[in-house]
Request: fold
Amino acid sequence: MSKIESTFLRLKSENKKALIPFITAGDPHPDMTVNMLHTLVESGADMIEVGIPFSDPMADGPVIQRASERALANDVGIKKTIQLVKEFRKQDTKTPIILMGYANPIEAIGIKDFVNQIKEADVDGVITVDYPPEESKDFVTLLREQDIDSIFLLSPTTEDNRIKLITEQATGFLYYVSLKGVTGSANIDIKQVSDRVNNIKKYSNLPIAVGFGVKDAETAKQVALISDAVVIGSRIIKEVENSNQEDLLENIRSLMTEIKSTIS
Reply:
């Protein structure tokens, strides 16, 4: 059983929902990343998505795009991201870590080498934004051989036949993109999200996480009522962007604590 699966089972037994924050590796500086990861765990993260910086993050809005630009300017790419996860693992071997990125950097390394490297770093899951299920079977097979979860995105426009195709390959959880467009781009229509989540449940028993539009504690509370997990990304990156180095960790801790209190 993967750490992701066991975490969801534990939370379900406690009648709780998962809080999954997102940060971009190397933003605002690689020296801060590991401390940020530990701060997220200390302030309520049940698992963490770590973004692999990429020069053309098509699914990300301006906030996370700028985070990738800052990280790349700090010479943080896919290999350095994996190194930072290894550093985090020296103190924390329990919190599930999910890498989120794009196919191009993975294929540049080679999918087999990439999977071997993230297995060595004790990564628990991978979200590859632009890998459609038709083109990711070999990748998914390699991940499964190493007991790493393959997490897929579903959107408001995903038709039922594709939901079925995706759920046949997915493990860990399903990530429902709550709105049309890029990360952080609009307000969530809770009724619409609820209807879509219920439809997805017809095809899979996997937990469903909702993200791409959670901007505050109230939205997180509403999302937690209709899903198994709340993903918060752009809002955290805004704290990174707007905080000086001395206040950054405390500002992240404050935001996380507020959100965690609404979904527990």
